[in-house]
Queue: 2 jobs
Job 1
Amino acid sequence: MKRLVIGLGNPGDEYRNTRHNIGFMVADRLAEVLKKRFSAGKGEYSCFECDVQRQHLIVAKPTTYMNLSGRAVAELVDLYNIDESGMMVVCDDLNLPFGQIRIRERGSSGGHKGLESIIYSLENDRFPRLRVGIGCPEDTEARDYVLAEFKENEKAVLNGVINDAAEAVLEWVNRGIVSAMNRFNVKLTH
């Protein structure tokens, strides 16, 4: 069976360490763990492929900006003939406390522009997503906040958060969505 994991973020060095790029950070961690390298795909994305247990895994990062992620995801779904339930999108979430992970089988975009683009391009919301909490202070403009780098106190625990999210993705690949939700949809302390 094939599994597709898409980490969301913005391309370019100026966005590399921003909160909005946590999906890219998780995809990069998966590459490290699985000892793979990203290479240019046949569309607007970079990716790698490997076998994990009995699953063929494709991990991708769109090379479009966040708001156009759906174009790359549609290309990947078509190229690899992936059913929406066989793909997982990894992205940041302003509404979750920093470091908390939430996995869902389907659902709305929750205002996330990358998810909105994917839902629009696929014409449905029936795909799993792993949201990584980045929090957002009430008196802060969301656009500025997501495009800012992590604070020093966040950087101190960010590695653990990214490890947990990568482990959650592999749990989904190996044991399915219910197992991943049961194990990781709890408040984590970092």
Note: Helices lie at 22-34, 69-80, 113-122, 142-146, 152-175, 177-184.
Job 2
Amino acid sequence: MNSKLCKELGIEFPLFAFSHCRDVVAAVTKAGGFGVFGATNLSGPELEIELNWIDSQVNGMPYGVDLIVPNNFVGKGENLSDEDMLGKIPQSHKDFAHNILENNGIDVDPNELEEDRKNHLRFGKNMTPEGAHESLTVAFNHPIKMIVNALGMPPKQMVDMAKDAGVKVGALVGAKKHAINQINAGVDILIVAGGEAGGHCGEVSSMVLIPEVYNAIKDIKDVPILAAGGIASGSQMAAAMAMGASGAWCGSVWLTTTEAETNPIVKEKMLSASSADTVRSKSRTGKHSRQLRSPWTDAWENSDQVQPLPSPVQPLVAEPALRKLDKLSLAGNKQAADLATYWVGQAVGLMNETKSAGEVVQDFKTDFIEAYERLNGALEEA
């Protein structure tokens, strides 16, 4: 595609694929799109392994890395030990998570969940300046073309290191005012995520948010917009670009691909789900994120006993239980399969068939061209 963004990043088609799965990232990049690796839960050495593998697969073709370094979180600036962070979890929330499992026929030792919480401390550590610096140092030692902050303003060290390396800085936004703030902070690419999006998202729909942000920033600075939220086809991508976007950022559509890291049981639930089968809830991370609705999410949403804790404490409550459900569901436990969930957007209603990530990219290209030709045809008829 002959666009400024494609030329700057060296890509054929401005379809950006966010995924925690390195196979998806590499496959999309090799198909002419731009893979973005989600490194939220990885230590520096773990990230090094993953990026080395991606480098070996893409042969110099462009890709990016996505981190979560929020502006505010529990423990910021306190230099908390692992024991201190675990001590932030009220017993009431531990009991509530355990009772959800027990009330749905899942027999789990509370001590097992307690022990597993220690394995989920990395998420919180990566939010700290020290954790972020470790991840950034690893990322910039690889030939990445974009670094993305998924929550809030990118820290100054991210912007400075990116500028020094000649790497684009991207940031997700869910409101017009946040987009303006990001531009003033030096962000090069805005990922404008509507409320339909999977994972962390705001409340405004993509149909409204994309032109709202485009109109707000066009006289401030020429910053490309990537449309995110509810997009699972090339025709939707074309519609977003007609509203001012320069490309599309997709996460959910890759979750049902053959390469995806998704629990196969949850993948089957996604393939049969409608757009109404998701919920925007704080139950997993302590911040609003859209995920597949299940009795787990319903219990948190309908509770008058407890409310989700702030990030990164809530993940210490939720993740051990959810990982246990994944394991049990794979072993054939029906109750665990009913409870199992994962992040996914309302585009899940359009995700009805398992394909490879490369095939999805090709489908996007074909559908985009068909949509473009339909619009051209309408203009010719007029």
Note: The chain has 17 helices and eleven strands.
